[in-house]
Design brief:
Number of domains: 2
Number of helices: 7
Strand order of the largest sheet: 4-5-7-3-6
Low-confidence stretches: 17-67
Strand content: 15-25%
Shape: elongated
Number of strands: 7
Amino acid sequence: MKKIITTLLALTLALTLAGCGRSASSGNSFYAADKAAPAEAADGYWEGDYVTNESAYTTASYGGEAVPARREAKLIYSASMELETTEFDQAVAALDALVADAKGYYQDRSVRQGGYRYGSFTVRVPAAAYDDFCRQAGELCHLLYANASAQDISDSYYDTDSRLQSARAKLARLQELLAKAESMQDIITIESAISDTQWEIDNLAGTLRDYDSLVDYATVNIELREVYQLSDAAQAPLTFGQRLANSFTSGLRSVGSALEDFAMWLAYSWVWLLVIAAAAVVIVRIARRRGFRLRKKKKSTPEAAEAPETK
C-alpha cells in the first residue's frame, strides 16, 4: 500500500508541475507581438475577418523539424454605436429585421417612452456575421458614433484547455489507482483526490464554455435616439435673409415654449395660488382693521385731554 500512496503522490506532483510550467510559459503573453489581429481591427470600425482557420493541434515541418502550426485565434468581437432618427418606429422595426437576418438575438432591450423616445439594445450575433451586421446597422439611421474592438484570448483559452486535458488525465489515473487500492485509508485518500480533480475539471470546462460563447457570438451595443432634426446634417450655407428668418422663427418658438411652460405651471400650482391669495386677503383685512383702530385711538386721546374737569 505504501507503493500505491507513493505513486499517487508522485503522479500528483508531476501533473501539478506540468500545469504550472504551461501557465508560466503562456499566461502572461496575452498580447504577443506576432498576433496582429487586434492591431488590424483597431484600424477601422469593423473591417476585415481576423479569425484564422488553421488547426490548433496540427504540426508542420520547418527545417526538417516538426513544429506546432499556428493555432486558431480566439477573438472576442465587440462594438458600440450611437444612432439618431426622426422615425423611431421604422428604425426599431428595421433593427429587428436585421437581427433576425443575422440569426442573432437581443441580450438586453429597453425603450423609454414619453416625449422623444430612446432605445438601448445589446445584440449578440454570430462572429461570422459580425462585420456585415455592424455595417448594415450603421446604415439604418444617422450614425453619430461607432467603435469596434477585438480582444485576443488565445493564450488564456489554450492554457485553460491544456490544464483541462491534464486534469482529465489525472482523473483517469486516479480511477485506475482506486480500482487497485485495498486498504480503507488508500481508498479514502484517492477518493478525496478524485473529488478535488473533478471539481477542477468542472471549473475549467465552465471557463471554456464561457470563452466559446464570447468567441462564437459577438456583442454589439446600440443606442437609438429619436430627434426632431438630425444633428450634424450637411447643409448649404444660409443667406442673411434665411438666418434672419430662422432667428425670428426661433424667437417665436422660444416665446411659445415659455408660455406653454407657464400654463403648465399654473395648471399644476393653482391650488397653492388660491391658498396664498386667500391668506393675503385675510392679512390685508386684519392690517386695515388694526390701522383703523389705531387712528381712532389717536383721535380720541386729544379730545379727552381738552375736556373740562367737572366739579
